[in-house]
Amino acid sequence: MKIVTASVLLAVIVATASALPAHAAATDYAFEPVNAEARNGAGSEIAVRLVHKPSGKPVAGAVIFRTRLDMSPDSMESMTTTVEPLTESEPGVYKFKADFTMAGGWALKLQAKVQGEPETVQGTVVFTAKE
Fold first, then answer.
1. Overall number of domains in the chain
2. 114 falls within a domain
3. What is the largest CA-CA distance in the chain?
4. Which helix (H) or strand (E) holds 42?
5. pTM
6. Strands, DSSP E only, in the chain?
7. What share of the chain is helix, strand, coil (3-state, %, to 5)?
8. Does 42 score more than 60 pLDDT?
9. Does residue 102 form part of some domain?
10. Considering only CA atoms, which of 5, 7, 92, 100 is closest in space to residue 45?
11. In contact, 113 and 62? CB cutoff 8 Å
12. How far apart are CA 2 and CA 12, in angstroms?
């Protein structure tokens, strides 16, 4: 009798666990450039879109808490510049003001918290500063 009860209980647990919705992972999100080209110079505006990859939909309301803009695409990671967040202009689009000090490839490295996602979402978006 105890074996039958334990077997039924185990079957219920397995069935319940498989019926629960799967949680998204931080790797289910990606940052993309709105426009990969930027104006070289002070006060340039750049924008990224945060997308939920399985659905293809933009993710609004993320809290971006760490940014770094450097020239690592041109093998000059120590060349950095300031990045200032601007207000979210449309759902899932995050804008920044940056002072590009040199033409070339720049990598915007981001870390963000997405509502309902326990892991930190990380990404790198490459921009090309043009003369």
1. 1
2. yes
3. 80
4. strand 41-52
5. 0.79
6. 29-33, 37-39, 41-52, 57-58, 63-71, 76-81, 83-85, 93-100, 104-113, 121-130
7. 20, 55, 30
8. yes
9. yes
10. 100
11. yes
12. 15
Asked if 57 and 51 count as a contact pair (C-beta separation under 8 A), the reply is yes
Q: What is the CATH classification number for the domain harbouring 45?
A: 2.60.40.1080
Beta-bridged to residue 131, according to DSSP, are none
Tell me the C-alpha distance between 126 and 73, whole Å: 7
Per-residue pLDDT tens over the stretch 67-114: 999 999 999 999 999 999 998 779 999 999 999 999 999 999 999 999
Q: List the domain range (segments joined by +) for residue 35.
A: 23-130
State the Cα–Cα distance between residues 121 and 81, nearest whole angstrom.
Answer: 22
Q: Is the distance from CB of 85 to CB of 67 less than 8 angstroms?
A: yes
CA dihedral of 57, 62, 64, 69, whole degrees rounded to 10: 10
| Residue 98 included in any domain | yes
